Amino acid sequence: MPSNVLIVDDHPGFRASARRLLASHGYEIVGEAASGKEALEAVRSLEPQLVLLDVGLPDADGIELARALSERHPEARVVVVSSRDREEVEPLLDGAGAAGFIPKAELSASALRDLLD
User: Fold this and answer.
1) Which neighbouring-strand residues pair with 80?
2) Which structural domain, as residue segments, surrounds residue 53?
3) How far apart are CA 103 and CA 80, in angstroms?
4) CATH number assigned to the domain comprising residue 29
């Protein structure tokens, strides 16, 4: 089970709440990124085991970024998050290399465990 996490989202409020939630369940948050460019740099330098990745970033498509991260850093598991509906996002993940999708409203340590086990 991945224990250190990079949170990638352009909304500081979501990053802060995800950080609190995950840290309270034993995850080590190794960094945060607000853009695709920052995410690529952070994954390279921080080597997280898990990347929590928003679909909508100001400079990148989260699905394409998941694909790039999975190809360049296969040791990092990517979990896509979004405020969009599951039915809208999950079909886009086909071939993207992501471990799966969790709606932001459903993000929890148990949802991550269920997805990654």
Assistant:
1) 53, 101
2) 4-116
3) 8
4) 3.40.50.2300
User: Are 55 and 77 contacting, i.e. CB atoms less than 8 angstroms apart?
Assistant: no
For the chain, how many structural domains are there in total?
1
Q: Kindly give the residue spans of alpha helices, DSSP state H, lying in the chain.
A: 12-23, 36-46, 62-72, 86-89, 109-116
CA–CA distance, 59 with 15 (Å, rounded to integer): 17
Beta-bridge partners for 61: 56
Residue 48, classified by CB atoms within 10 Å of its CB into exposed (0-12), middle (13-18) or buried (19+), is: buried
Q: Which residue has the tokens 């991260």?
A: 69
What does the pLDDT look like over 5-40, one tens digit per residue?
Answer: 999 999 999 999 999 999 999 999 999 999 999 999
Count CA within 13 A, CB hemisphere, residue 25.
Answer: 17
